[in-house]
UniProtKB/TrEMBL annotation:
Protein name (record): Ribonuclease R
KW Hydrolase (keyword) present: yes
Catalytic activity: Exonucleolytic cleavage in the 3'- to 5'-direction to yield nucleoside 5'-phosphates
One Pfam family of this chain: RNB
Function of the protein: 3'-5' exoribonuclease that releases 5'-nucleoside monophosphates and is involved in maturation of structured RNAs.
Key word Cytoplasm present: yes
Keywords linked to the UniProt accession: Cytoplasm, Exonuclease, Hydrolase, Nuclease, RNA-binding
Gene transcribed to yield this protein: rnr
């Protein structure tokens, strides 16, 4: 790029136009050269770029700037302040600053006449409808309030610490309020003891010193693991109690009967679930298709508990279910979306009991592709309740008293149908990121017994594939009937993330085809050629982090991960509100009776529901993850000084995050403890590189660490590095390593290859903001 003739200092619009005209990231130097700026102008340019980034008009990361990632049309946002004109300013409630930089600002446009539920103030959380602003002088987005979700909080959750003179202090659980301890007078403790988890009402005070608070509720001692999940429940405002009206409706509900239903009680449907499952909302059956025109094909039946029969639109049960959005699963408890009378009784497909269900009958061809399907409202009776390992053991030649009689008539046909369906799945080639998930097993007293990674069996894959087929059938039927629905969507990775992945793979000499349409196959090829190689865990982690997050939407843009054009959740209405909406839509579309989707539901109203339940899903995932972190930190608190082996699971300017092999716990090795030399953060390599020795610590490295500190309330661990996988002598650990070119025939082998020395990056880096664990979502929440 040739320097342009000096045209004077550019205004904001000119700079923004230049950035938009150059997709990807451009640097300060590029902008300066474009406008012929002198060295004396650089400070003013950097100031202007900071302002543009603060307003969300551009995204600034290190020394590069680009257009910000587009916000969805409907989102949840926190109202953070006001501008110079007194207008409200908001930011997205869910935003990864490490990945995306500063969150964009949204100017709230208030109508002259407020609708009920839309009056908002600073500190509130609201559902917004947003669009790009055409004003480059202000925030990048403007928005209108659809509904205020939460008013500004005047209550804080924390740990009570008593003082010798009486009264005490509240140490907030939420890291955002970690520096905002509250003073609690002796008369306001409500009998709280040192170490109790309490909720405290903030008492507004004037003058200097700590604000004061009043204990509202005692939730138990944090010394007990049984209180750990309560921290997440209260910290994330997860509703714990059902309304009395909802409880009354649940108790008044009566079991389903044959009225308006087909009788499927003689079809030997079975449930296959984890051994500790409390509710059983899906059952399956399969057999060869007797149609001579479909020789080698199968008929697969999937029956799902008929929740829509009991939870009617607009009822108290419906309001509570929508508020929760989904069930939340902790190691010691479940916070259900529906009362136990519904979820664990009337809608649990227990053996021998007649239960209402919505079933889909699917015809598969010999190639595994679905040829046709039909939906039915039925009365069924489960033939058996099986665990995954139990069903798999029977197929593998180890039947027990329950599965022995089921093996030939039920289990073998199910597995044969799965083998058939797998042919089409393999041809479709969805994203193959089958990463293990840890499971915490507790003792009877609520303490951690052990952490395990359950074996991934064909029984799991069988149920998963049949559920996917049923979900596709639901979406296809509702589209054909032109009914509004909530899709489960998963966008393809952004170009920025794809370029970052390609640059990283280039450092490993792993080819990555960026040309042409992006498909899951593109990533699968990379993973396949590295299977069994030392780099496989590292590359799997980076590929995972390149993916977008699945969500709910009333607009369909497909499911990238599953490689499906249309997909909707249908198979778990007990624990997901999205599935309940799809059930209601099917009842309405097919004229199946009571509990149908109301005519008042439109794509616009469902877009608001989709935005809300996408948020509650992320809330649940975060609460579950934090609880697991706290439980394991509590479990390891008495093992300070012990040594562990793990892998580097995250690399930031703050240091290395390490995931322990034994428990799956994550902890930080601070960068200051890595040695006496200075380490640069190499974003492209996901590594820290020593400026003097070239020592490199990279994502995926195997390391030995010592536990230095455990903070159970925060769920945080701090480690000290003992050794790494190539510390067999002087620490010349991959000094900006000459990379190996992988052989196509033998991915684990690499011919010798000379490589030009790379230029070392300079600069002191910046202090990390907060604590980034660098973790991606494990498993598929698709």
């Amino acid at each position: 790029m040739k320097p342009k003739k000096d045209r004077g200092f550019p205004d904001r619009q000119a700079i923004v136009a230049f950035i938009k005209a150059n997709p990807g990231k451009v640097g300060t130097r590029d902008i300066a050269r474009e406008f012929g700026l002198k060295n004396a102008d650089r400070a003013e340019l950097r100031r202007m770029l900071r302002e543009l980034a603060d307003d969300g008009i551009i995204k600034k990361k290190r020394h590069k700037v680009s257009e910000p990632d587009a916000l969805p049309p409907t989102l949840l946002a926190d109202i953070t302040g006001r501008d110079a004109d007194g207008e409200l300013i908001a930011s997205p409630a869910e935003w990864d600053e490490v990945e995306n930089g500063e969150p964009p600002k949204i100017l709230i446009e208030m109508p002259r006449r407020l609708k009920p539920g839309t009056a908002a103030g600073v500190g509130d959380r609201a559902l917004l409808r947003v669009e790009r602003s055409d004003d480059d002088e202000g925030p990048a987005y403007r928005g209108r309030i659809i509904k205020v979700i939460d008013k500004a909080k005047s209550r804080i959750l924390g740990v009570f610490r008593s003082l010798p003179e009486g009264g005490g202090r509240l140490v907030p659980v939420d890291k955002k309020f970690a520096d905002r301890e509250l003073n609690i007078a002796k008369t306001d403790t409500q009998g709280a003891q040192d170490g109790d988890l309490v909720s405290v009402d903030i008492v507004r005070t004037r003058g200097f010193g700590l604000a004061s608070g009043r204990v509202k509720e005692k939730l138990g001692s944090v010394k007990s693991e049984k209180a750990i999940s309560l921290i997440a429940i209260y910290a994330h405002d997860i509703p714990l109690q059902f309304s009395s009206a909802a409880e009354r409706e649940a108790e008044a509900a009566e079991p389903a009967n044959l009225k308006g239903r087909e009788d499927w009680r003689d079809v030997p449907l079975v449930t296959i679930d984890p051994p500790d499952a409390k509710d059983h909302d899906d059952a399956v059956h399969a057999g060869p298709d007797p149609d001579p025109n479909n020789k080698g094909g199968f008929i697969v039946n999937v029956a799902i508990a008929d929740v829509s029969f009991y939870v009617r639109p607009g009822s108290a049960l419906d309001r509570d279910a929508l508020d929760r959005g989904n069930s939340v699963y902790f190691p010691d408890r479940v916070v259900p979306m529906l009362p136990e009378r519904i979820s664990n009784n009337l809608c649990s497909l227990v053996p021998g009991e007649a239960r209402g269900a919505l079933a889909v009958r699917m015809v598969l061809g010999p190639d595994g592709r679905k040829r046709s399907h039909s939906f039915h409202r039925i009365l069924m009776r489960s033939a058996a309740k099986l665990a995954y390992a139990q069903a798999q053991a029977a197929i593998d030649g180890r039947p027990d008293d329950t599965t022995g009689s089921l093996l030939d008539p039920i289990l073998r046909p199910l597995y044969a149908a799965y083998a058939c369906a797998k042919r089409a799945r393999d041809e479709r080639d969805p994203l193959n990121l089958d990463l293990p998930e840890r499971k915490i097993l507790l003792k009877s007293d609520g303490t951690v017994d052990r952490v395990m990674v359950p074996e991934r069996l064909d029984a799991h894959k069988l149920i998963e594939e049949f559920m996917i087929l049923a979900n596709v059938a639901a979406a296809e039927t509702l589209e054909k009937k032109s009914l509004p629905l909530i899709y489960r969507v998963h966008d393809e990775p952004t170009l920025e993330k794809v370029h970052a992945l390609a640059e990283f793979l280039e450092t490993l000499d792993v080819p990555f085809a960026k040309a042409g349409a992006l498909r899951p196959t593109t990533f699968n090829r990379v993973l396949a050629q590295l299977e069994g190689h030392d780099y496989y865990p590292l590359v799997s982690e980076v590929v995972l982090r390149a993916q977008a997050q699945a969500e709910y939407s009333s607009e369909n843009y497909g499911h990238f991960g599953l490689n499906l054009r249309r997909y909707a959740h249908f198979t778990s209405p007990i624990r997901r509100y999205a599935d309940l909406v799809v059930h209601r839509a099917l009842v309405r579309a097919l004229g199946l009776g009571e509990g149908a989707l109301p005519d008042s539901e439109t794509p616009e109203t469902l877009s608001e529901v989709a935005a809300h339940i996408s948020l509650t899903e992320r809330r649940a995932m975060k609460a579950e993850r934090e609880t697991v972190d706290r439980l394991i930190a509590h479990h390891l608190a008495d093992r300070i000084g012990a040594s562990f082996q793990g892998r580097v699971s995250g690399v930031t300017r703050a240091g290395l995050f390490v995931k322990l092999n034994e428990t799956g716990a994550d902890g930080l090795i601070p960068i200051r403890s890595l040695g006496t030399e200075y380490f640069n953060y190499d974003e492209g390599r996901h590594a820290l590189v020593g400026t003097r020795s070239g020592t490199m610590y990279q994502l995926g490295d195997v390391v030995d660490v010592r536990l230095i500190e455990a903070a159970p309330i925060a769920g945080a661990l701090r480690f000290e590095l003992l050794s790494s996988e190539s510390d067999s002598g002087p620490r010349e650990r991959r000094p900006l390593r000459p990379q190996r070119k992988l052989s196509k025939a033998h991915p684990g082998r690499s011919p010798e290859r000379k490589r030009k020395p790379e230029k070392q990056k300079s600069g002191k880096g910046k202090k990390a903001k907060g604590k980034n664990k660098g973790k991606g979502k494990k498993g598929k929440a698709w």
